[in-house]
Amino acid sequence: ETGVTQTPRHLVMGMTNKKSLKCEQHLGHNAMYWYKQSAKKPLELMFVYNFKEQTENNSVPSRFSPECPNSSHLFLHLHTLQPEDSALYLCASSQVKRLAGVHTGELFFGEGSRLTVL
Amino acid sequence: AQSVTQLDSHVSVSEGTPVLLRCNYSSSYSPSLFWYVQHPNKGLQLLLKYTSAATLVKGINGFEAEFKKSETSFHLTKPSAHMSDAAEYFCVVSLISSGSARQLTFGSGTQLTVLP
After folding, report:
1. Number of neighbours of residue B18 by Cβ within 10 angstroms
2. CB-defined contacts A:B, below 8 A
3. Tens of pLDDT along A5-47?
4. CB nearest A105 (choices: B32, B41, B43)
5. Strand order of the sheet with strand A18-25?
6. From CA B109, how far away is CA B35, in angstroms rounded?
């Protein structure tokens, strides 16, 4: 069983559709992340949840809506997307030391959800 | 502020020959440095990390990297390339004292091709 599981692996949607990406981590970590990976661009951090609270929203358009119901699950709800939103969406998790707030930088990634917006 | 530059977007080597993937960084503080690998249609996997201990870091699959503060470099090497090493490699810099993933800065990646 992989540490971080993402579903679906591939998704094709129209601009008026509503869909969701799901991520589940089995590592006991307390922080989860959404990254966007587009061709020929650096990895872009979208959202961060530490201890189930959103701590980062990196200027992401409101058509992307994250949800973290517990420390093991993370969703990305998609609504009225644009073709330029087509990309590989990667979920990751890590362990953050609560008191010190230290992030070691070691992320564990899922295999990604390849999104195509028509 | 911090940044990371991967000097080559593409590197091609023959199977059995050495691999060198170059990474330079800039950081106001002592950074942590990482190399991740991404095979086609897969997520990123941690190869190795430097966190202010030994400057020569050994990772998985025979890779290693040397932290050189004077050169602000963290180049990734492997003595002998294998076909399975063909992938994209990312150099990452992090402020160890930061509590935020915002402080993880990813390089733009180096695509490694291994020729038979």
Report:
1. 11
2. 75
3. 999 999 999 888 899 999 999 999 988 999 999 987 888 989 9
4. B32
5. A4-7, A18-25, A73-79, A64-70
6. 10
